[in-house]
Amino acid sequence: MKQDLLSMRGIIKSFSGVRALNGIDIRLAAGDVLSICGENGSGKSTLMKVLSGVWPHGSYEGEIVFAGQEVKAMSIRDTEAQGIVIIHQELALVKELTVMENIFLGNELGPPWRINEESMYQQTLALLSRVNLSISPDTQVSELGVGQQQLVEIAKALNKDVKLLILDEPTSSLTNQEIHILLDIVRSLKEQGIACIYISHKLDEVLALSDWVCVIRDGDHIATRAATELTQNDIIGMMVGREMDQLFPREVHEIGNVILTVNKACARLSGASRPQVDEVSFELREGEILGIAGLIGSGRTELMQCLFGSYPGEYSAEIKVAGQPKVIRSQQAALKAGIAMVPEDRKRHGIVPIMGVGRNMTLPVLDKYQTWFGAIDEQQEHQDIELYLERLKVKTASADLAIKHLSGGNQQKAIIAKYLLTHPNILILDEPTRGIDVGAKYEIYKLMYALVKRGVSIIMVSSELPEVIGISDRVLVMHEGRLKGQFEHQGLTQEMIMNCAIKEGVSNV
């Protein structure tokens, strides 16, 4: 049996008397990959903050032993000195600096009065080679894609003589090709004897990469088992505490007349070589869930931004809502036309992080609560907030709690509540389940069906083909700004969608 590189025993962490971790035990040997799975709010991130020194020794109970020595870290710098490095979902690179400057930031070579840039350059080349990244060390980080930035973060960790690498949702914003590259890098590190703790909601990645899978639920350690003994359904059952044989709870609902007609939608950024949306036309019916599929860069999000008046470049479209022509040049005009949109990047475009959950929800409809003398009817506002918090099952200690403290799934439900308060007839959901766990996904799917049963029409953009097929009544496929095909959901497969997205010509089934 392998000797433990890491042992965490009886870890207890509380906030204001409420236990977030209730005696967690994990073990990991050098060269092994341990995936930690759990719903949002289960305690995964809190446990990693304890391990990486974000929560210092003394702020938690229990014992951490690493490489045979007890860890009593007071900061991240202490754990990094021991070889424990964490890469967060939100990358911490300074985009205005070069790759080399980021890798050596705070750890420059040479005496204080003369930095040895030549040695740093050569060492950066060697580190980039280890992660199969063929770029110049002088490249500014802002010029790199998300996948390349992720690899730079790993190169930075390798420069710190990492023995244990913690990856928190590393593939949530990556393309399929970038995901394969990243997983291969982790396998390569494993061969070099570097241990890895991998946190992901993508269970296919977890099973493909891991030696061990640890499941945490509501701060409790449910089980740690060999990955070879588990299926995705096994992990889901442990995560949510119940069987989830049907991940996509399709429900029968009536589809009515055409509610939205879009004709010749076009969008182009200044200086772009081709339009991001190129004369796309389609219809949406009452009570329908219309899925939009396509590869990254196909123009899915840009098309939705045209409908919601939020596209940053030049755009045009002939839009009719319930047969009436609409000119939509702003988000306010879209909301007035009965169109609301939950954006792809919830943290950047969906929330005001330091503002309370409730006030985030009522931002688009503040005029609804304005009294005749200009004040806000806080009682009515509070009633609506509580109603929608309960209706969408948003878990929060208080409506006044800063929304940044909520889990990803609860943030997403709060954003959906924000736009439901505008009482839309058409709701656009752009990547509605990105970065959230299977339990929260299931709740959002149930909510979508509840909405269409009330007559709301939904357009759902998603990169997850099983989700597109499992939830949509009809699917549109885009490629390089054009509409390539449309399919009814019955008999639809992932291969049919991918073939349509890649091959020339137009498909209709």
UniProtKB/TrEMBL annotation:
Principal localization reads membrane
Among SUPFAM superfamilies, the record links this protein to: P-loop containing nucleoside triphosphate hydrolases (SSF52540)
GO molecular function list: ABC-type D-xylose transporter activity; ATP binding; ATP hydrolysis activity
| Enzyme Commission designation | 3.6.3.17
UniProt keyword Repeat present: yes
- Domain ABC transporter residues, every copy: 6-243, 260-505
Q: How does it sit in the membrane?
A: Peripheral membrane protein
Among SMART domains, the record links this protein to: AAA (SM00382)
InterPro entries associated with the record: AAA+_ATPase, ABC_carbohydrate_import_ATPase, ABC_transporter-like_ATP-bd, ABC_transporter-like_CS, ABC_transptr_XylG, P-loop_NTPase
Identify which top EC class this enzyme belongs to.
hydrolase
Q: Which UniProt keywords apply?
A: ATP-binding, Cell inner membrane, Cell membrane, Hydrolase, Membrane, Nucleotide-binding, Repeat, Sugar transport, Translocase, Transport
Spell out the subcellular localization from the entry. Cell inner membrane; Cell membrane
Q: Which Pfam families match?
A: ABC_tran
| Annotated Gene Ontology cellular component terms | plasma membrane
Q: Which domain of life is it from?
A: Bacteria
The protein here is known as D-xylose ABC transporter, ATPase subunit
- Organism of derivation: Marinomonas posidonica (strain CECT 7376 / NCIMB 14433 / IVIA-Po-181)
The taxonomy runs: Bacteria, Pseudomonadati, Pseudomonadota, Gammaproteobacteria, Oceanospirillales
